[in-house]
Amino acid sequence: MCKNKYLYNNHVSNTKISANEKSKKVRLIMIEYKKAKIERQYSSLFSENKKYRKEQQEHYINYIDEIINSLSKESKEFIIKEYIESNNDSKWWMNVYRRSTYYKVRESALNEFLLYVI
102 Cβ partners below 8 Å, 6+ apart? Predict the structure, then answer.
């Protein structure tokens, strides 16, 4: 985790990572997060040989949960709606935000989330 939010935000804004690239990175993280949660749910079906994998999954789930819970309210809600709950509903935000507001909130939420991951 980057302790100095100011340095990180300057670093992110000065790099050539587009919002779409950031979104792809967060989406991949959340795919792994969802897979780990599903595997945890069905872990009793697996043999004891998978104990190490199960521990890794628990650590990963807890790590992502901690990051999500550390986000501002707006960023937390956005990340959950956009990357965890919105299976096929990519237009969920249309009832919540105007297009320009959506992109501002998205950029802020992605930067805040990636602050903890990078």
Answer: 93, 96
